[in-house]
Amino acid sequence: MKWHLGRAVPELGFEPVPVRLRAFLDDALALDTHAGVLVWEPRRIVPVYAVPESDLRLGVEPTEPRPDPPDPSAYPPMLGPDSFEPHFAPGTVVDLVAGERRLSGAGFRPDDPDLAGLVVLDFRAFDRWLVEDEELVGHPHDPFKRIDVLASGRHVEVSLDGTVLAATDDALLLVETHLPVRYYVPSADVRVAMTPSDTRTTCAYKGHASYLSTADGRPEGVDVAWTYPDPLDDALRVRGRVAFWNERTDIRVDGELLPRPITPWSTPQEQSAADAERLEFG
């Protein structure tokens, strides 16, 4: 299924949103619609919202001329939610204007006739989003994605360069579509001293994560783990537990070493090795 879904990445896709959407700028309502659409732009693994231009309480104006269409080879095969541009679908980039505030390049008018009259929006350009009366963080939810949290009595051990970081018989497995299984262990089962870092990330489904580094200061231990102090509904059961990067540590389950997955969070060296292997074996 991952292979089949991955083949759709180069194509533009969309799905109507059957709920009320609102977004705010400086506490002022910037859009209010019951006719939103989720849009998967080419090479994007996270959808964005498109709304009827008539439902925007903002001006929509031409932006500075953009360069020629982006060179696909200059970007990864799949792009995450961190940047709104570049756009690999035909269309026009626009600015959104609220009084004296101009959101440069925060809108995109696709040329696709099925999306005529809609403006695709940069989620991060707005201060706050509501789906009905629920706060939304990070990016729009994908209706074809899910999270399961499963209790497991199997023995889970996490190590880094031979040092055991954690070991438990009380793991919670967080299974999330398209991502490696994450093993959340009780903080009491972490066996080395960890120090909080300044790194924070946001997941639309799990909430705001705080990161931890090994106290010994080794480079490989920087931001090697994370925790959700106040998770969203889908991840309530992992509150306060600690998860380690499968991509950067050695995880054994009932003594069996799991292969390190190759994801956007793998080290550049591991990604390069995986790319070389794909080129060699096709």
Q: Could you outline the blueprint of secondary structure elements for this entry?
A:
Layout: H1 2-7, E1 13-16, E2 21-25, E3 28-33, E4 37-40, E5 48-52, E6 59-62, E7 91-98, E8 101-110, E9 118-121, E10 128-131, E11 134-136, E12 147-152, E13 156-160, E14 163-168, E15 171-176, E16 182-185, E17 194-203, E18 207-214, E19 225-227, E20 242-244, E21 250-253, E22 256-257, H2 268-281
Antiparallel strand pairs: 1-4, 2-3, 2-10, 4-5, 5-9, 6-7, 7-8, 8-9, 10-11, 12-15, 13-14, 13-21, 15-16, 16-20, 17-18, 18-19, 19-20, 21-22
Q: Report the uncertain regions.
A: 274-282
* CATH superfamily (homologous) name of the largest domain: Domain of unknown function (DUF427)
- The best one-word shape is elongated
Range of strand content: 35-45%
Q: What's the SSE pattern?
A: HEEEEEEEEEEEEEEEEEEEEEEH
What does this structure look like?
With 282 residues, the chain is mainly β. The chain folds into two domains: 114 residues, Domain of unknown function (DUF427) (Metal Binding Protein, Guanine Nucleotide Exchange Factor, Chain A, Beta Complex), CATH 2.170.150.40; 121 residues, Beta Complex (Metal Binding Protein, Guanine Nucleotide Exchange Factor, Chain A), CATH 2.170.150.40. The chain has two helices and 22 strands. The strands form four sheets. Strands 1-4-5-9-8-7-6 form a seven-stranded antiparallel sheet, with no helix packed on it. The chain has a seven-stranded antiparallel sheet with strand order 12-15-16-20-19-18-17, with no helix packed on it. It is elongated and about 55 Å long. The relative contact order is 0.11. The C terminus is likely disordered.
